[in-house]
Amino acid sequence: MSHHIVHVKNLQHVYPDQTVALQEVSFLIHHGESVGIIGANGAGKSTLLLHLNGYLAATSGEIIIGDDTLSKETLPEIRRTVGMVFQDPEDQLFMPTVFDDVAFGPLNMGLSHEEIEARVTEALERVDAEELRNKPPYHLSGGEKKRVAIATVLSMLPEILVLDEPTNGLDPHARRQLIALLQAFHHTRIVTSHDLDMILELCDRTIVLHEGLVMADGPTMEIFGNDELLKTCRLEKPFAMQSCPVCSPGKQTSPKQPPLVAPHSSKPHDHHHDH
Known about the structure:
By secondary structure, this protein is of the alpha/beta class. It has helices at residues 45-51, 75-81, 98-108, 113-126, 142-154, 172-183, 196-202, 220-224, 227-232, and strands at 6-14, 20-29, 34-38, 60-65, 68-69, 82-85, 160-164, 188-192, 205-210, 213-219.
């Protein structure tokens, strides 16, 4: 595949009840980019992600991954290239043990027992979850489930990682672990989230969706600096870019500081939520 690009052209999706979820969405993502997709509830973020490896079929428009246009014929190859991590890890964990879940994809690819063992071990090491390999998934914490769900995708050796609300429901420590994990990946990453501080840390580029339309696509700092755009799309600045009268009267918090995490307190900026 050539540089594993993701090219979405005039994508439209209309649900059976005639709800228009996506309208003429177009963008091009190059190999190695980390791109955030943000928007208020109902903007079309999850719907868009589910098109990128064929879980939903477009009403019109096309999706090109590398050299392949998404179709019934190219679907198996595209699903190997584009690894999708769902919002709810329960959607990905359904086997008796963590090992079985992470081995599921490679097993279906017809790989040898040795190759499957190697892929499972490597994937669990990447997400720092080797000690969980023999546990039943329902015994795991939320953060552990999220990491194992990512491992089930990594075992397929995808070139592109697509993550829907990866920090959703995580406590501050698990969230910080997950962000560090994602920062260490050299894959192309496409991430949707309401956690805009995570988008600020993880993504150099951000696409803003509003009512199924692309309202903006550009450098993340520029997007979050555009008050008019954020207001129109019912979004707030990340906490790291909001001035906080309690922490620093009259000062803007530097966007380079790690948001919402401090060594001695799990949530030092809770008062931000009250602004």
